[in-house]
Amino acid sequence: MAALAAAPPAPAQSRPYGRPALAAAAVLLGSFLVGFDTRLFSIGLPDLRGAFGLSFDQGAWLSTIATAPQIFIAPAVAWLAATFGVGRVLFWPSLAYAVVSMIIPEVRNWETLALLHGLRGFLLGVFIPATIMIIFRNLPLKWWVPALAVYAFRLAFSQSAGVAIVGFYEIHLSWQWVYWQDVFLAPLIGILVRLGSPVEKVDFALLQRADWGGMALLGSSWALIYVALDQGNRLDWLQSGLILTLLLAGIVLHLGFFANEMLVKAPWASHRVIAKRNILLGFLVILCFNLASMSNSLLVPNFLSNVIGLRPEEIGGPIFVGVALPLLVIMPIAVVMIRLFDARLSLLIGFLAFAIAAHMGTQITHEWSPWSFLPMLLIQSVGQGFTFLAAVVYLLTNSDPKQATAVGAYIQVLRLGGAETGISIMMTFLRHREQLHSYLLGLHVSAASPKVTDALHGFTAPFADAGASAQQASARGVASLAAVVAREANVLAYIDGFQLCYWGALAGLLVVALLGQAPRGPLSPRHYWG
Hints:
mainly alpha
């Protein structure tokens, strides 16, 4: 969502572009590095806990610590790059990121590990806003939509391919490559930016008007809210004093940010810049996308992992074939659609695909294998390819270029905070639905029921035949029956999760119907109806 991070300082025809091919390569590599690193860490976290010798709680906090600094720094990167230049903002962090990624696998002390992951997350938060700014400051206008397509592509591609990559590392290399891959990739981004971007002077006028308080308040407020959202499901939300404190502190700081922007002479991100009907509705489109796309990014891999009990290397292949590979064809089609027709048409197609796929997900059973999801994944890839790119282009065409840095700050909060909010809602929803279904199923598991008696006999017999005592065989039979009830309760919970994604897609269709025509501009489609 950093697509709106900054506007070009001069008309497209008069800007120095440097070497566009190298700049485009930096955009491509930077986008993929962020997507893959975030996905690989989340998928590989169970193995990383074992490798580092961490408890479950320490692993959960490590995940939060690795992401919260991204929330803190990302909204301000657009301003930093506009002031100091993309090259300066991206080059040195890329080298530091490589060094930190090389050191982390050798660390075993918890405090040091947490500190390094926090620093790594802080540096990672620079990449997407800074690399996407290259599109607007260093690429000709005709390259903008294809370059934005690369950004949209990496989001869906990394979510799908990340599972397969983790499986490949675990089988053929080692878990350390989750970090070591960046020792080679991160410096390459910095080099490409240096070679592909013209040397930019420091904008001392922007520096003198810097709204440091506004940047600090917005970043820190949403970082605290993110920590509360990420840990809330595990700590039972408002039943935890820590979560309540984090939420209250985040809200107070956010209110302080709005007060600051109204009082300072040169506000960095005044709320007035997004107080437009199309912009606000565009934000709602992104939130609906975050919810609808979880049928692909969260529910399918988690169902196969948590309910069926498969490893990343067992589920990565079908997800890669079903989503990642089709995107190679779908994204060019999406680019052509946006260039020829209104972006709202692409949004309608995308949300319709998500609705169909989510409805298919309500038919799952415990017998589904990874390849059983293939038809649904293929349809989800259409939603991923069409929706996100069209939303970015629509927001871009409705924004005032003079205020794009301020808009970019809100976009970064929406990109990271909105996604985490959706995940937290879904994980809490799944937990409560599993508890409800477990209770409802348990009501029908009565010792007096002939079906239950027959089932217990079937579960007990193998243990008795294996030489277990009658008491041991009976206990293990009861445990096996309880495991079946728990499995089916989880299946029903995931069916409800797909239903929630279905309603998210329908909500997206409704919001798209309310979107107004974007003003005519350089990114307007060839068939403009305004």
